[in-house]
Design a protein that fits this description.
Belongs to the UDPGP type 1 family. The protein has twelve helices and 23 strands. With 464 residues, it is of the alpha/beta class. It folds into two domains: 346 residues, Spore Coat Polysaccharide Biosynthesis Protein SpsA, Chain A; 109 residues, Hexapeptide repeat proteins (UDP N-Acetylglucosamine Acyltransferase, domain 1, 3 Solenoid), CATH 2.160.10. It has an eight-stranded mixed beta sheet, sandwiched between helices. Strands 20-21-22-23 form a four-stranded parallel beta sheet, with helices on one face. A three-stranded antiparallel beta sheet has the order 8-16-15. Helix 3 packs across helix 8. The longest helix is centred in the first third of the chain and has 18 residues.
Length: 464
């Protein structure tokens, strides 16, 4: 063991880290050092052949009796470690209202509760929280206690390391400033250490569906579950065709030893970042929806655990350059012999990262059915509009103030807004709409219809 890590290990208990966290960070740190000794050979990185990826449309429909049997073996986990800071909110992102007065968490619970009602099943919900979301989440879910069995566990917390010394930033622990949650790949260790893996296995559960809490397209799919049960595949990653909006997302690659492996942009050498983003070379990306055979995962930990690829995330905190050692849940793919990817419809990937995304999911592009957002059949175009709201809209409170009513965007292709604009009721946007209000503010009055409009400068009401 390196002298540098011994220094870190000696300091962590004094900073308030538990013995289990010291041991977990040791495994991550040593994996990083081992990985840093071998460079990624870009010439060996290939997009997986077509036959290596299963196709969702080839999966059979599932009848009611089969569905009941499958759901008796299933649990659902949502990755709930994120805060709403990207939209100017305090607290868990899953507590943000997204549609019809309902939050992300409301919709997640509704999805599972409805499944249980329809099929007479008892699918439980598991939440992986971070130190930043755990307390508020536990308060939030109290209102669901009579509706659903819910398990919570908290992922690990590790110290940020200074770039100049590779030692922790300070001698005191300060969650969120000098320490961090190490990515959703920490799920495997934290979930196992929490004891919930053993509890679910004892309750007869065999499969776990995992998705991000902010992905409104991530719902239980019986066809994928049936395929997993029938084939005996221990791990399935859902991938979907890449678009221009997804060029930075992790993709699936085939390694020289013929394994399928997740590759994130942070792992790509600088000279090849643009090639990584190419839609021609890498045509699919990871939705972060994964399906795990719990017995196979238990066997992995009985044999010593899982070693994932380490992602080095560089940041600056209080003017100090630091690194965070992280892992991705999709990185577990290479650890399961026989793991598969399945190309799913784009509808299974509907994340809300910014208010741009929020406008999409709040609009008439979607209808809400049993807690799941379904694309409005009246939308005649295949893809979704590209939304670029300006700086005035990025804070959730300011965003809400600017829409007296969400506009009709059923026939919209692109919306770009720069400046202080507000929307009245019954506004319709079609085609490509670009509005640049350079001076003052503008309110689009009730009943405004804009179709293929590009307007810049000081917009006059008569021009609309």
């Amino acid at each position: 063991m390196s002298k540098r890590f011994l220094q870190i290990a000696r300091s962590m208990p004094d900073q308030g880290f538990s013995e289990a966290q010291v041991e977990a960070f040791k495994r991550l740190y040593l994996a990083w050092k081992k990985q840093s000794q071998s460079q990624l050979d870009w010439a060996e990185v290939k997009s997986p052949p077509e036959e290596a990826v299963l196709h969702y449309e080839d999966f059979a429909e599932v009848d009611t009796e089969r569905a009941r049997d499958l759901l008796s073996k299933l649990a659902v986990c949502r990755l709930n470690g994120g805060l709403g800071t990207s939209m100017g909110c305090v607290g868990p992102k899953s507590g943000i209202e997204v549609r019809g007065g309902e939050t992300f968490m409301d919709l997640i619970v509704t999805q599972i509760r409805r499944l249980n009602e329809v099929y007479g099943s008892a699918v439980p919900l598991v939440l992986m929280n971070s130190f930043a979301t755990d307390s508020d989440t536990k308060k939030m879910i109290r209102r669901y206690e009579d509706e659903l069995e819910i398990y919570c566990f908290t992922q690990n917390e590790f110290p940020r390391l200074r770039v100049d010394s590779n030692l922790p930033m300070l001698k005191v622990r300060h969650p969120g400033q000098y320490s961090y949650p190490p990515g959703h790949g920490d799920f495997y260790d934290s979930f196992t250490q929490s004891g919930i893996l053993d509890q679910l296995l004892s309750a007869g559960k065999e499969y776990l569906f995992v998705g991000n809490a902010d992905n409104l397209g991530a719902s239980v799919d019986l066809k994928i579950l049936a395929q997993m049960d029938k084939s005996g595949v221990p791990f399935i990653m859902e991938v979907t065709p890449k678009t221009r909006a997804d060029v930075k997302g992790g993709t699936l690659v085939k390694t020289p030893d013929a394994h399928l492996q997740l590759l994130e942009i942070a792992q790509v050498p600088k000279d090849y970042v643009e090639e990584f983003k190419s839609v021609k070379k890498f045509k699919i990306f990871n939705t972060n929806n994964v399906w795990i055979n719990l017995k196979a995962m238990k066997a992995k930990y009985d044999q010593g655990g899982m070693e994932l690829e380490v992602i080095v995330n560089k940041k600056t905190v209080n003017h100090v350059p630091v690194i965070q050692l992280e892992t991705a849940i999709g990185g577990g793919m290479k650890c399961f012999e026989g793991a598969k990817a399945v190309k799913v419809p784009r509808s299974r990937f509907l994340p809300v990262k910014k208010t741009d995304d929020l406008l999409l999911v709040q609009s008439n592009l979607f209808v809400l059915k049993d807690g799941v957002l379904v694309k409005n059949p009246e939308r005649q175009f295949e893809g979704l509009p590209l939304i670029r709201l300006g700086a005035y809209f990025q804070d959730l409170e300011a965003y809400a103030e600017r829409f007296e009513e969400i506009p009709d965007i059923l026939e919209l292709d692109l919306l770009t807004i720069v400046g202080d604009l507000r929307f009245g009721k019954n506004v319709t946007l079609r085609g490509n709409v670009i509005l640049v209000c350079e001076q003052g503010s503008l309110t689009l009055p009730e009943g405004t219809v804009l179709e293929n409009k590009v307007m810049t400068g000081s917009i006059k009401m008569g021009e609309l």
